[in-house]
Amino acid sequence: MGPHETIPLSRPTFGDEEIDALREVLDSGWVAGQGPRGRMLEEAFSELCGGVGAVAVANCTAALHLALLGFDLGPGDEVLVSDYTYPATGHSVLYTGATPRFVDVRPDTWTMDVEAAAAAVGPRTVGIVAVDTLGQCADLGPLRDLATRHGLFLVEDAACSVGATYRGRPSGSLADVACFSLHARKGITSGEGGMLVSPDPARVEQARKLSCFGVESAHARQSADGLPVPVFEALGYNYKLSDIQAAVALVQLRRLPDLLAARRRVAAAYLAGLADVPGLTLPVVGEERDHTWQTFALTLDPDVPRAEVASSLRDVGVQVNIGTFASHRQPVYGPQEPLPVSGGLFDRHLAIPMHADLTGTEVERVVLAVRDALAPHT
Ligand SMILES: *Cc1c(COP(=O)(O)O)cnc(C)c1O
After folding, report:
1. Where do the structural domains in the chain lie, given as residue ranges?
2. How far is the CA of 189 from the centre of ligand 1 (A)?
3. For the segment 226-277, what is each residue's pLDDT rounded down to a tens digit?
4. What is the residue with the minimal CA distance to atom 1 of ligand 1?
5. Pocket mutation for ligand 1, best pick of 157, 161, 182, 293 (most atoms within 8 Å of C-beta)
6. Which CATH number is associated with domain 256-377?
7. What is the pLDDT of residues 14-25, one digit of tens each?
8. Distance separating alpha carbons of residues 346 and 328, to the nearest angstrom
9. Are 335 and 99 in contact (CB under 8 A)?
10. What is the CATH number of domain 16-254?
11. C-alpha angle 360-364-369 in degrees, rounded to nearest 5
Protein backbone atom coordinates (compact mmCIF):
# COMPACT_ATOMS: atom_id res chain seq x y z
CA MET A 1 0.00 0.00 0.00
CA GLY A 2 1.44 3.38 -1.06
CA PRO A 3 1.64 6.38 1.27
CA HIS A 4 -1.48 8.01 -0.14
CA GLU A 5 -3.79 5.04 -0.20
CA THR A 6 -6.64 5.09 2.26
CA ILE A 7 -6.25 3.03 5.42
CA PRO A 8 -9.69 1.54 6.09
CA LEU A 9 -11.23 1.72 9.53
CA SER A 10 -11.95 -1.98 9.40
CA ARG A 11 -11.62 -4.86 6.97
CA PRO A 12 -12.16 -8.61 7.15
CA THR A 13 -9.12 -10.88 6.88
CA PHE A 14 -9.82 -13.60 4.30
CA GLY A 15 -7.43 -15.90 2.44
CA ASP A 16 -7.17 -19.14 0.51
CA GLU A 17 -8.57 -21.19 3.41
CA GLU A 18 -11.90 -19.35 3.26
CA ILE A 19 -12.00 -19.72 -0.56
CA ASP A 20 -11.30 -23.47 -0.23
CA ALA A 21 -14.02 -23.79 2.40
CA LEU A 22 -16.49 -22.02 0.10
CA ARG A 23 -15.65 -24.31 -2.80
CA GLU A 24 -16.18 -27.32 -0.54
CA VAL A 25 -19.52 -26.20 0.83
CA LEU A 26 -20.83 -25.28 -2.64
CA ASP A 27 -19.75 -28.71 -3.94
CA SER A 28 -21.35 -30.44 -0.94
CA GLY A 29 -24.93 -29.69 -1.97
CA TRP A 30 -25.96 -28.40 1.50
CA VAL A 31 -25.98 -24.62 1.49
CA ALA A 32 -29.07 -23.86 3.60
CA GLY A 33 -29.08 -23.42 7.37
CA GLN A 34 -28.86 -26.11 10.07
CA GLY A 35 -26.53 -28.22 7.93
CA PRO A 36 -23.35 -30.10 8.82
CA ARG A 37 -21.13 -27.02 8.82
CA GLY A 38 -23.51 -25.13 11.07
CA ARG A 39 -23.34 -28.04 13.50
CA MET A 40 -19.54 -28.01 13.38
CA LEU A 41 -19.53 -24.28 14.00
CA GLU A 42 -21.83 -24.72 16.99
CA GLU A 43 -19.51 -27.39 18.40
CA ALA A 44 -16.51 -25.12 17.91
CA PHE A 45 -18.23 -22.24 19.75
CA SER A 46 -19.30 -24.63 22.48
CA GLU A 47 -15.68 -25.62 22.97
CA LEU A 48 -14.48 -22.00 22.87
CA CYS A 49 -16.96 -21.07 25.61
CA GLY A 50 -16.23 -23.94 27.97
CA GLY A 51 -18.89 -26.46 27.00
CA VAL A 52 -22.03 -24.32 26.69
CA GLY A 53 -24.71 -25.21 24.12
CA ALA A 54 -24.72 -23.18 20.89
CA VAL A 55 -27.13 -22.24 18.09
CA ALA A 56 -25.88 -20.68 14.85
CA VAL A 57 -28.14 -17.84 13.71
CA ALA A 58 -28.37 -15.18 11.02
CA ASN A 59 -26.92 -12.37 13.14
CA CYS A 60 -26.37 -11.28 16.72
CA THR A 61 -29.59 -9.25 16.78
CA ALA A 62 -31.55 -12.42 16.04
CA ALA A 63 -29.60 -14.19 18.80
CA LEU A 64 -30.51 -11.42 21.26
CA HIS A 65 -34.17 -11.62 20.24
CA LEU A 66 -34.20 -15.42 20.74
CA ALA A 67 -32.35 -15.06 24.06
CA LEU A 68 -34.97 -12.65 25.38
CA LEU A 69 -37.91 -14.72 24.06
CA GLY A 70 -36.63 -17.48 26.31
CA PHE A 71 -37.44 -15.36 29.38
CA ASP A 72 -41.11 -14.78 28.42
CA LEU A 73 -40.87 -11.01 28.34
CA GLY A 74 -43.82 -8.83 27.58
CA PRO A 75 -45.37 -5.40 27.97
CA GLY A 76 -44.80 -3.99 31.45
CA ASP A 77 -41.50 -5.80 31.94
CA GLU A 78 -38.31 -3.73 32.17
CA VAL A 79 -34.86 -4.85 31.14
CA LEU A 80 -31.71 -2.99 32.20
CA VAL A 81 -29.61 -2.36 29.07
CA SER A 82 -26.10 -0.99 28.85
CA ASP A 83 -26.58 2.41 27.17
CA TYR A 84 -23.38 2.71 25.14
CA THR A 85 -23.90 0.11 22.41
CA TYR A 86 -25.07 -0.52 18.92
CA PRO A 87 -28.87 -0.07 19.13
CA ALA A 88 -29.44 -3.72 18.22
CA THR A 89 -29.29 -4.29 21.99
CA GLY A 90 -32.20 -1.97 22.83
CA HIS A 91 -34.11 -3.04 19.70
CA SER A 92 -34.04 -6.69 20.77
CA VAL A 93 -35.81 -5.76 24.03
CA LEU A 94 -38.45 -3.77 22.13
CA TYR A 95 -39.10 -6.74 19.79
CA THR A 96 -40.45 -8.66 22.80
CA GLY A 97 -42.82 -5.89 23.89
CA ALA A 98 -40.76 -5.18 27.02
CA THR A 99 -39.14 -1.82 27.78
CA PRO A 100 -35.40 -1.18 27.80
CA ARG A 101 -34.25 0.83 30.81
CA PHE A 102 -30.88 2.25 29.79
CA VAL A 103 -28.06 2.25 32.33
CA ASP A 104 -24.98 4.48 32.18
CA VAL A 105 -21.50 3.04 31.70
CA ARG A 106 -18.13 3.18 33.44
CA PRO A 107 -15.96 6.07 32.21
CA ASP A 108 -12.91 3.79 31.83
CA THR A 109 -14.16 0.52 30.28
CA TRP A 110 -17.43 1.91 28.83
CA THR A 111 -19.27 -1.17 30.13
CA MET A 112 -22.42 -1.13 32.32
CA ASP A 113 -21.86 0.73 35.61
CA VAL A 114 -22.82 -1.85 38.23
CA GLU A 115 -23.83 0.73 40.87
CA ALA A 116 -26.02 2.53 38.36
CA ALA A 117 -27.57 -0.81 37.43
CA ALA A 118 -28.28 -1.60 41.08
CA ALA A 119 -29.92 1.80 41.50
CA ALA A 120 -32.08 1.23 38.42
CA VAL A 121 -33.62 -2.06 39.60
CA GLY A 122 -37.31 -1.53 40.23
CA PRO A 123 -40.46 -3.60 40.74
CA ARG A 124 -40.83 -4.26 37.01
CA THR A 125 -37.20 -5.18 36.34
CA VAL A 126 -36.88 -8.75 35.07
CA GLY A 127 -33.38 -8.88 33.63
CA ILE A 128 -30.11 -7.32 32.55
CA VAL A 129 -28.49 -7.14 29.12
CA ALA A 130 -24.81 -6.31 29.64
CA VAL A 131 -22.66 -5.38 26.65
CA ASP A 132 -19.01 -6.31 26.16
CA THR A 133 -18.31 -2.83 24.85
CA LEU A 134 -16.17 -2.66 21.69
CA GLY A 135 -14.65 -6.01 22.61
CA GLN A 136 -14.03 -6.00 26.35
CA CYS A 137 -16.16 -7.85 28.84
CA ALA A 138 -18.59 -6.10 31.17
CA ASP A 139 -18.26 -6.64 34.94
CA LEU A 140 -19.90 -10.02 34.60
CA GLY A 141 -19.08 -11.14 38.15
CA PRO A 142 -20.73 -8.25 40.02
CA LEU A 143 -23.57 -8.17 37.46
CA ARG A 144 -24.21 -11.86 38.06
CA ASP A 145 -24.34 -11.14 41.82
CA LEU A 146 -26.78 -8.28 41.25
CA ALA A 147 -28.95 -10.50 39.03
CA THR A 148 -28.97 -13.30 41.60
CA ARG A 149 -29.84 -10.91 44.44
CA HIS A 150 -32.94 -9.66 42.61
CA GLY A 151 -33.93 -12.80 40.72
CA LEU A 152 -33.08 -11.29 37.32
CA PHE A 153 -31.75 -12.96 34.19
CA LEU A 154 -28.38 -11.94 32.77
CA VAL A 155 -27.81 -11.82 29.00
CA GLU A 156 -24.38 -10.95 27.62
CA ASP A 157 -24.31 -9.02 24.35
CA ALA A 158 -20.96 -10.43 23.30
CA ALA A 159 -21.27 -9.20 19.71
CA CYS A 160 -17.73 -7.78 19.70
CA SER A 161 -16.04 -10.13 22.15
CA VAL A 162 -15.40 -13.52 20.53
CA GLY A 163 -12.17 -14.58 22.24
CA ALA A 164 -12.29 -12.07 25.13
CA THR A 165 -11.84 -13.27 28.71
CA TYR A 166 -13.06 -12.15 32.13
CA ARG A 167 -11.31 -13.45 35.27
CA GLY A 168 -9.66 -16.04 33.04
CA ARG A 169 -12.94 -17.34 31.66
CA PRO A 170 -14.07 -16.92 28.04
CA SER A 171 -16.76 -14.43 27.10
CA GLY A 172 -19.98 -16.33 26.50
CA SER A 173 -19.49 -18.59 29.53
CA LEU A 174 -20.61 -16.17 32.25
CA ALA A 175 -24.25 -15.33 31.60
CA ASP A 176 -27.56 -17.18 31.27
CA VAL A 177 -27.32 -16.58 27.54
CA ALA A 178 -24.63 -14.87 25.45
CA CYS A 179 -24.87 -13.64 21.86
CA PHE A 180 -21.98 -13.25 19.43
CA SER A 181 -21.86 -11.47 16.06
CA LEU A 182 -20.06 -12.57 12.91
CA HIS A 183 -20.76 -9.29 11.09
CA ALA A 184 -18.02 -7.92 8.85
CA ARG A 185 -16.99 -5.30 11.43
CA LYS A 186 -16.27 -7.88 14.13
CA GLY A 187 -13.05 -9.79 14.87
CA ILE A 188 -14.09 -12.90 12.94
CA THR A 189 -16.76 -12.81 10.25
CA SER A 190 -18.88 -14.61 7.72
CA GLY A 191 -20.25 -11.35 6.29
CA GLU A 192 -23.34 -11.57 8.47
CA GLY A 193 -23.84 -14.17 11.18
CA GLY A 194 -24.39 -14.81 14.87
CA MET A 195 -24.24 -17.41 17.62
CA LEU A 196 -26.38 -17.88 20.73
CA VAL A 197 -24.72 -19.80 23.57
CA SER A 198 -26.08 -20.92 26.94
CA PRO A 199 -25.18 -23.39 29.66
CA ASP A 200 -28.89 -24.37 29.87
CA PRO A 201 -29.72 -27.15 27.34
CA ALA A 202 -33.47 -26.45 27.45
CA ARG A 203 -32.83 -22.81 26.56
CA VAL A 204 -30.57 -23.85 23.70
CA GLU A 205 -33.15 -26.26 22.25
CA GLN A 206 -35.91 -23.67 22.51
CA ALA A 207 -33.74 -21.10 20.73
CA ARG A 208 -32.89 -23.65 18.03
CA LYS A 209 -36.55 -24.38 17.41
CA LEU A 210 -37.54 -20.70 17.37
CA SER A 211 -34.69 -19.97 14.94
CA CYS A 212 -36.38 -22.37 12.48
CA PHE A 213 -40.08 -21.44 12.35
CA GLY A 214 -40.81 -23.26 15.61
CA VAL A 215 -40.12 -26.65 14.05
CA GLU A 216 -37.40 -29.26 14.57
CA SER A 217 -34.22 -28.91 12.49
CA ALA A 218 -34.18 -29.86 8.80
CA HIS A 219 -30.92 -31.75 9.23
CA ALA A 220 -32.36 -33.86 12.09
CA ARG A 221 -35.45 -34.64 9.96
CA GLN A 222 -33.36 -35.64 6.97
CA SER A 223 -31.35 -38.18 8.92
CA ALA A 224 -34.44 -39.83 10.48
CA ASP A 225 -36.04 -43.01 9.06
CA GLY A 226 -39.37 -43.20 7.24
CA LEU A 227 -41.19 -40.01 6.36
CA PRO A 228 -41.30 -37.81 9.45
CA VAL A 229 -43.74 -34.94 9.09
CA PRO A 230 -42.64 -31.79 10.87
CA VAL A 231 -44.92 -30.27 13.44
CA PHE A 232 -45.05 -26.52 14.07
CA GLU A 233 -45.30 -26.13 17.80
CA ALA A 234 -44.62 -22.44 18.31
CA LEU A 235 -44.48 -19.21 16.32
CA GLY A 236 -40.79 -19.25 15.37
CA TYR A 237 -38.71 -17.17 13.00
CA ASN A 238 -36.36 -17.85 10.13
CA TYR A 239 -33.13 -16.84 11.84
CA LYS A 240 -30.89 -19.61 10.47
CA LEU A 241 -27.29 -19.15 9.40
CA SER A 242 -26.61 -20.63 5.94
CA ASP A 243 -24.02 -23.38 5.72
CA ILE A 244 -22.11 -21.16 3.25
CA GLN A 245 -21.64 -18.64 6.05
CA ALA A 246 -20.93 -21.37 8.59
CA ALA A 247 -18.15 -22.71 6.34
CA VAL A 248 -16.43 -19.32 6.32
CA ALA A 249 -17.00 -18.79 10.04
CA LEU A 250 -15.41 -22.17 10.84
CA VAL A 251 -12.19 -21.13 9.13
CA GLN A 252 -12.28 -17.74 10.84
CA LEU A 253 -12.76 -19.34 14.25
CA ARG A 254 -9.75 -21.59 13.62
CA ARG A 255 -7.74 -18.45 12.85
CA LEU A 256 -9.04 -16.57 15.91
CA PRO A 257 -5.82 -16.79 17.98
CA ASP A 258 -3.77 -15.29 15.12
CA LEU A 259 -6.34 -12.61 14.32
CA LEU A 260 -6.59 -11.61 17.99
CA ALA A 261 -2.80 -11.51 18.35
CA ALA A 262 -2.58 -9.22 15.32
CA ARG A 263 -5.18 -6.83 16.73
CA ARG A 264 -3.45 -6.84 20.12
CA ARG A 265 -0.15 -5.91 18.43
CA VAL A 266 -1.85 -2.98 16.70
CA ALA A 267 -3.44 -1.87 19.98
CA ALA A 268 -0.10 -2.04 21.80
CA ALA A 269 1.53 0.05 19.05
CA TYR A 270 -1.23 2.68 19.24
CA LEU A 271 -1.05 2.81 23.04
CA ALA A 272 2.71 3.37 22.88
CA GLY A 273 2.68 5.73 19.88
CA LEU A 274 -0.13 7.97 21.13
CA ALA A 275 0.72 7.98 24.85
CA ASP A 276 1.97 11.58 24.95
CA VAL A 277 -0.46 13.18 22.50
CA PRO A 278 -2.37 16.07 24.10
CA GLY A 279 -6.11 16.38 23.57
CA LEU A 280 -7.06 12.74 23.89
CA THR A 281 -7.44 9.87 26.35
CA LEU A 282 -6.44 6.35 25.32
CA PRO A 283 -8.64 3.31 25.88
CA VAL A 284 -8.14 1.34 29.09
CA VAL A 285 -8.23 -2.41 29.54
CA GLY A 286 -10.18 -3.10 32.74
CA GLU A 287 -8.93 -5.28 35.58
CA GLU A 288 -9.14 -9.06 35.13
CA ARG A 289 -9.97 -9.06 31.42
CA ASP A 290 -8.51 -9.43 27.91
CA HIS A 291 -9.69 -7.15 25.12
CA THR A 292 -10.44 -8.25 21.54
CA TRP A 293 -10.03 -4.70 20.20
CA GLN A 294 -13.02 -4.89 17.89
CA THR A 295 -12.72 -1.08 17.83
CA PHE A 296 -9.91 1.19 19.00
CA ALA A 297 -11.53 4.46 20.12
CA LEU A 298 -9.78 7.64 21.22
CA THR A 299 -11.68 9.86 23.66
CA LEU A 300 -11.09 13.43 22.50
CA ASP A 301 -11.03 16.19 25.09
CA PRO A 302 -14.40 18.01 25.31
CA ASP A 303 -13.07 21.17 23.62
CA VAL A 304 -11.54 19.36 20.63
CA PRO A 305 -13.78 19.68 17.52
CA ARG A 306 -14.25 16.04 16.53
CA ALA A 307 -15.69 16.65 13.06
CA GLU A 308 -12.69 18.83 12.12
CA VAL A 309 -10.23 16.25 13.40
CA ALA A 310 -12.11 13.55 11.46
CA SER A 311 -11.94 15.62 8.27
CA SER A 312 -8.19 16.21 8.66
CA LEU A 313 -7.63 12.48 9.11
CA ARG A 314 -9.79 11.57 6.12
CA ASP A 315 -7.88 14.15 4.03
CA VAL A 316 -4.68 12.18 4.61
CA GLY A 317 -6.31 8.82 3.91
CA VAL A 318 -7.06 7.64 7.44
CA GLN A 319 -10.63 6.42 7.85
CA VAL A 320 -12.29 7.20 11.17
CA ASN A 321 -15.72 6.90 12.72
CA ILE A 322 -17.65 7.50 15.93
CA GLY A 323 -17.21 4.86 18.67
CA THR A 324 -20.74 3.54 19.09
CA PHE A 325 -24.13 4.96 20.13
CA ALA A 326 -25.73 6.46 23.22
CA SER A 327 -28.96 4.47 23.08
CA HIS A 328 -30.86 6.97 25.24
CA ARG A 329 -30.35 9.63 22.57
CA GLN A 330 -31.94 7.58 19.77
CA PRO A 331 -35.50 8.81 19.09
CA VAL A 332 -36.81 5.27 18.54
CA TYR A 333 -36.68 4.72 22.32
CA GLY A 334 -38.70 7.83 23.16
CA PRO A 335 -37.74 10.48 25.71
CA GLN A 336 -35.13 9.25 28.20
CA GLU A 337 -33.21 10.65 31.16
CA PRO A 338 -29.74 11.89 30.15
CA LEU A 339 -26.88 9.49 30.89
CA PRO A 340 -23.79 11.70 31.04
CA VAL A 341 -20.96 9.18 30.64
CA SER A 342 -22.47 7.37 27.67
CA GLY A 343 -23.57 10.69 26.14
CA GLY A 344 -20.05 12.07 26.48
CA LEU A 345 -18.47 9.03 24.82
CA PHE A 346 -21.02 9.24 21.98
CA ASP A 347 -19.97 12.87 21.38
CA ARG A 348 -16.23 12.50 21.87
CA HIS A 349 -15.15 9.07 20.68
CA LEU A 350 -13.14 8.77 17.49
CA ALA A 351 -12.49 5.24 16.22
CA ILE A 352 -9.25 4.85 14.26
CA PRO A 353 -8.31 1.99 11.90
CA MET A 354 -8.28 -1.42 13.61
CA HIS A 355 -8.09 -4.77 11.86
CA ALA A 356 -5.77 -7.77 11.73
CA ASP A 357 -4.07 -6.84 8.43
CA LEU A 358 -2.75 -3.41 9.48
CA THR A 359 1.00 -3.21 8.84
CA GLY A 360 3.55 -1.52 11.10
CA THR A 361 3.96 1.20 8.46
CA GLU A 362 0.23 1.84 8.38
CA VAL A 363 0.05 2.03 12.17
CA GLU A 364 2.88 4.60 12.10
CA ARG A 365 1.02 6.59 9.46
CA VAL A 366 -2.12 6.61 11.63
CA VAL A 367 -0.14 7.68 14.72
CA LEU A 368 1.50 10.57 12.88
CA ALA A 369 -1.80 11.60 11.29
CA VAL A 370 -3.57 11.69 14.66
CA ARG A 371 -0.76 13.84 16.10
CA ASP A 372 -0.97 16.26 13.15
CA ALA A 373 -4.76 16.40 13.23
CA LEU A 374 -4.86 17.24 16.93
CA ALA A 375 -1.97 19.72 16.96
CA PRO A 376 -3.99 22.79 15.85
CA HIS A 377 -6.57 22.15 18.59
CA THR A 378 -4.38 21.67 21.68
C1 LIG B 1 -22.60 -5.40 16.02
C2 LIG B 1 -23.36 -5.41 17.27
C3 LIG B 1 -24.65 -5.97 17.36
C4 LIG B 1 -25.39 -6.46 16.18
O5 LIG B 1 -24.78 -7.57 15.57
P6 LIG B 1 -25.40 -8.11 14.21
O7 LIG B 1 -24.69 -9.42 14.02
O8 LIG B 1 -25.05 -7.12 13.14
O9 LIG B 1 -26.85 -8.27 14.39
C10 LIG B 1 -25.26 -6.02 18.61
N11 LIG B 1 -24.66 -5.52 19.70
C12 LIG B 1 -23.45 -4.96 19.65
C13 LIG B 1 -22.81 -4.45 20.91
C14 LIG B 1 -22.76 -4.87 18.43
O15 LIG B 1 -21.57 -4.27 18.39
Report:
1. 16-254, 256-377
2. 12
3. 888 889 989 999 999 999 999 999 999 999 999 999 999 999 999 999 999 9
4. 159
5. 157
6. 3.90.1150.10
7. 999 999 999 999
8. 11
9. no
10. 3.40.640.10
11. 150
